[in-house]
Amino acid sequence: MRTTALLLLATTVACATLVGQTLSRGSLSSPVYPLKASANGRYLTDSNGVPFLLMGDSPQSMIANLAPRQMSGYMANRQAMGFNSILVDALCSSYTGGNGNGTAYDGTPPFSSGTDPSNYDLSTPNAAYFAEVDALVNLAATYHLAVVLDPIETGGWLVTLENNGPAKAYNYGVYLGNRYRGFANIVWQSGNDFQSWNSSPTDNNLVHQVMLGIASTDPVHLQTIELNYNFSYSNQDNTLSDVLTLDACYTYYETYDCFVQAYASAPVLPLFLTEANYEYENNTGQLPGPAGPYVLREQAYWTLTSGGAGQLYGNHYTWLFPPEWQLFLISPGALEIQYINGLFGALPWQNLVPDTAHQVVTAGYGTYNGGNENLTTATYCTTAWVPGSYALSYCPQATTLTVSLAEFAGLTRARWYDPSNGTFIPISGSPFRNSGRHNFTTPGNNHNGDPDWVLDLDPAAAP
Fold first, then answer.
1. How many other CB atoms are found less than 10 A from the CB of residue 202?
2. Please, which pLDDT band fits residue 18 given cuts at 50, 70 and 90?
3. Which regions of the chain carry the CATH code 2.60.40?
4. Positions of CATH 3.20.20.80 in the chain
């Protein structure tokens, strides 16, 4: 235990040293929770109306695997790395890296009747267990982290819902709503690998009842759901329209495709990436190896230039917490979160709209392929813009983009942004007049030796 604690402390200190200086450009002030939807329904804000770019990690099994001191070290690290949110399962079984009997890290069971998810009685919540969940949420608040909390994830606990029935499912939701409505830093996310939502109305109703129960006593916190792999978004489940206040994409394909479809769906809800490829994993077997920074960047930048208002990053070692997980806190993918924050934090990102009609970038944007799971072969460039002024185009491969400069209101500065180290490369001839079209060619491989770049177009300073 002493060795582990010292390792975590050293890792956290090293992280702060590495990223402390660079985070300042893109960091936002501490949010005032709870989060809410913007007036136009397209992004999240804090309670003061300040736009909130959701940038989360996914320590799903935290309640089952980490003692409070370890939780604190993890959260301090994530805050220093530029994360503002974490995804946690309120109930955790072996399906999400916890204990087979669903107990907390210290052996406390979540219910007083039953011995495991197959026979737990939802009407008997164990106050001692949920006090530990309370402590986790409160601890996250001290690090200004929002907790995306899954009330009863459906990968390992759907059997519990099925055995208990709709009335107990609803009352369990009422219990959670009553207990957590006073915790400001919560967003509810039901589901998780919910493969039967569209084939079993009974299963779908059980989850709906939990969400209805929560909403009946906690109408303040946002609610969303993760549906099925390998592609889904929350708005597809029309049964939940009376409780959904947030939309979430879950996809292992080129992520923009999910966002294009979800962004066009009704009702209009803030939209984020809840799950895609995790660092160090290759769940579909379609990548050439475990996902690394390049694939993670593709997923993130496609998301944020296709109508997304944030993402949950994932890391094999920080969702399962195997031995020596602390060694992987400062991972290459996690380190690059600061560069996402740095770019978007300096822009009015909340006003960006996806340019799916190719009004700005008219050629050179590659091939749209919503069915591709080998993201390393993707060529499609996505563009988001604030009409008349800012535009960002993410290109995963070398290309020459043709840009209609006539779409901009005045002189436009053009730069290439290296998403692997957060630096800009000026483009010769910039700033450009707002007339005609101009070709912009990606400048070779980036700092990491990968071909992806972001074209940054923004209003030039007055001469």
1. 11
2. very low
3. 355-459
4. 2-349
pLDDT over 50 (residue 414): yes
Torsion of CA 52, 56, 60, 66, to 10 degrees: -100
Report yes or no: 379 and 397 within 8 Å, Cβ to Cβ: yes
Mean pLDDT of 62-91: 98
Q: How many CB atoms are located within 10 Å of the residue 327 CB?
A: 12
Q: CATH assignment of 355-459?
A: 2.60.40
CA–CA distance from 275 to each of 70, 233, 283, 340 (Å)? Answer: 24, 11, 12, 17
Indicate if the pLDDT at residue 17 is higher than 60.
no
Nearest alpha-carbon partner for 313 in 326, 327, 329:
329
Closest CA to 342 of 55, 101, 6: 55
Question: What pLDDT, in 10s, does the model give residues 222-243?
Answer: 999 999 999 999 999 999 999 9
Give the C-alpha separation, 57 to 36, whole Å.
Answer: 20
Chain length of the chain: 463
Edge-to-edge order in the sheet of strand 423-426: 353-354, 382-385, 391-395, 453-459, 412-418, 423-426
Residue 97 scores a pLDDT above 50: yes
Amino acid at 424: F
Cα 12 to chain centroid, rounded: 22
Class of domain 2-349: alpha beta
Mean pLDDT score, 109-137: 98
**pLDDT of 418 over the 60 cut:** yes
In this structure, the strands spanning 186-191 and 223-226 are parallel
Torsion 19-21-22-26 (CA) sign: positive
At residue 251, the 3 state secondary structure works out as strand
B/e letters for 114-144, b = 16+ CB within 10 Å, e = fewer, are bebbeebebeebbeebbebbeebbebbbebb
User: What is 275-335 written as a DSSP string?
Assistant: E-PPBT--TTS-SSSS--HHHHHHHHHHHHTTT--EEE--BHHHHS--TTGGGGSS-HHHH
Give the sign of the dihedral formed by CA 303, CA 304, CA 307, CA 309. positive
pLDDT at 29: 67
Separation of alpha carbons 351 and 76, rounded Å: 31
Order of strands across the sheet with 51-52? Answer: 36-37, 44-45, 51-52
pLDDT 10s digits, 291-315: 999 999 999 999 999 999 999 999 9
